[in-house]
Amino acid sequence: MKVLMFGWEFPPFSHGGLGRACYGLAKSLAKTGTEITFIVPIFPENKNDGSIKVISAAAAQKIKVKGVFSFMSPYETPLEFYKNSLKFNHSQRMQLYGRNLFKEVNMFTEKAAMVAEYGDFDIIHAHDWMTFGAAIKTKHQSGKPLVIHVHSTEIDRTGGNGVNQVIYDIERSSMEAADLVITVSRLEKNKIIEHYGISADKISVSHNSINANEYNRVKHMINMNKHYKIVLFLGRVTLQKGPDYFLYAAKKVLKEKKDVKFIIAGSGDMMFSMIEKAAQLGISDRVFFTGYLLDNEIERLMKSSNVLVMPSVAEPFGIVALEAMINKVPLIVSKQSGVIEVVDHCMKVDFWDVNEMANKILALLDYESLSTSISENGFHDVRKMSWDSQATNCLKIYEKVLGDA
Amino acid sequence: MVDICFYFQVHQPHRLKNFSIFEIGKSHSYFNDTKNEKILRKVAQKCYIPANNTILDLIHRHGGAFKVSYSISGCILDQFERFMPEMIESFNELVKTGCVELLDETYYHSLASVFNKDEFVEQVKLHNEKIQGLFRFKPRVFRNTELVYSNDIAKIAEELGYIGVLGEGFDRILEWRSPNFVYKPVNSNIKLLLRNHMLSDDIAFRFGNTEWKEFPLTADKFATWINSINGNGQIVNLFMDYETFGEHQWAEKGIFEFLKFLPGEILKNIDNGFVTPSEAFEKYGPAGELDIPALTSWADTERDLTAWLGNKMQQEASQKLYEMRDLIIRSNIKPLIDDWRKLQTSDHFYYMCTKWFSDGDVHKYFNPFDTPYDALISFMNILNDLRIRLKEVNLVNGVERKWLADVQQDQVFWLRDGDAIKNILELSSALRTMEPNVFDYHVNAGRNDFATWVKVVVGDDVLAKNLEKCNKSTMAAKMVEERIKYLKK
Fold it and tell me: ipTM score here?
């Protein structure tokens, strides 16, 4: 089987679950003997260090990586894209000549499709909206079937308010044009049926996973946890991830218990308003914002934490939850998260129910038997997980699509 | 000849509310009465009412040849009295036939037998009084919560004056022996009936299972199994939850028809009959002695207590609960004692069980919590509230403060080296620096002066009991320090 995959950066330059999911899946697919050509946008910034390392790592796994220079980043909003583009010098900008996100996506579409034209493949597999255009163009060029993999939608990212119509239209028309749609949870499948009108029999669910044996690299804790209990939020600081609910819950916890610190690790468009919100609530001395972190920093922070809260408003999956469990951090996750379809041993709470969230945080901090049971059983839940079974599942999906075609 | 001995367990717990940490110290209502009433009425409609009617019919139809026994927990009796007094009447009618025997258990359907003998005995007595009060019937046979049994429990039952006790016919203990005889527990002068788990579970668990090779189970088929025991057993003990009829096994699947026809089919063979437990004990001598030192139960495949006390949460919760006994009882405040005892009901610990993957959905039966973790959180939050209530009461009563105070001058403790100790704070610092020869003088195989003084003069039984276990001064010092920390909290 030969697969042409339009995906996202390889770690360590992944900005969220998407990059990690693409990498995990591609790696395990390659293990089964599947030949993968991975077309990936490469940020010019990373050209000299990251991309080269990335390609050599991938080559060892017999994945052909074809980089396409692009300023695109999977989680950017059009406005953020504009702000970020100002960071580059004139010649870099000229080289990439996109002036806004959509132009940039169009450029990527053209360039990526050109790269794809000379490839030899049986099926096309594309991850999230920015690559959909390139994938569809390639489908038309080659006549090969297309699988679209939805990790999150515009509806998820905006919470349904202020949906960008252009992005929504790209998502919808691409799903319609695709031969099959993969979602990362049943929750997401239902949303796509409801909001995008795609018929249920055209959607397959393939949950995300982690390679459990790739964790446990970090031994050192951060210093703060010697003196304080630590409650962690880990994710992009955006509406979708519910950082505001985390702060409201923090306020309630701090009323009952003093020796607790709250950490918001990640960056995003709500960062500044969250810093302000913490001040408004009078808890800014108890809440820390770390900004964007690298993988080993993330793991270290997780290992030092007493509770990890994932209060996502809309979470198609939520790989962070699995990472918390493999790092034995007791986990509270919103009922609006797809990950609860694959794990049992975590605490579930509605994202808006900050009272219950605070109740559960306090219980995990106070009741020793609860936190050890939940982290031990949670670890048991995920310790054997790997992307291999997801790859097998994915191959079945390919075969089904190719059989139908 | 083969006799059938039916015993049905009738019980519903006082299920807890989702009690948040923010309610601690504010709300003292722990139980979800609305839900409890709803479940009680539902189960009554599906099981208790039709099953009682069926059994009453059968008793009349067979002219006294059909007999059964019940153990009805105090928890459900309280709820019947409050929400459905007609159910008490219904059971009364059954008792009046003379073909129904009532057994004793712990009032609160608790695991007190595992934790505290005094508490256990107290609850058994409460149950006995309740049954006598409501049904004018004095139980003579004891069965423990979830059929938890051991030599020690048999001994206590004997001390309490029961003629017999019920237990699980667990293969690993019986080995080559059959559960179909009356036994005698080692070291007790009392008799023992063992559940025939194969035949009991054929009805209680497998009846409606279409995958089962014996499906569908009919009354005449079951009767042939009973007949085949003739010659190698005297009594078949069919012990099960009463909810088997209509709730665990649905009416639509024919469980009531099975019950209706079973006595007739059994009695077709003139060698067969029905007995109640006390009749069995009078009729049959023991076939042998059984030595069961470790606790067994009728639950799951392990037949042990892991469903209630197997994980860390269950252990922490139960330990914290029973630790409070002394102060709770001393408070002498009825609602406080009653709430504390309702928290002992085994179901609360069952809901905290995390091994549900292997043992299936039995654990989910009317479970008010989504996960075992939620069950623990509410339970512990409630315990914290109970502690606050206790604190307030004891502050008023001054009980705890008294234990920290100086004793009367003529009751001070004179150490061998001449120092005097007048309160437990001084005791703790003295123990810290005590010479080994001084300690060994006061604490040795024959005596423990510190424990005796704390018990008799200070009056703190809990600390006294802990000190009895200490054979080193550092250990004793630690015990006293911990106690002071607790009392000062």
Answer: 0.82
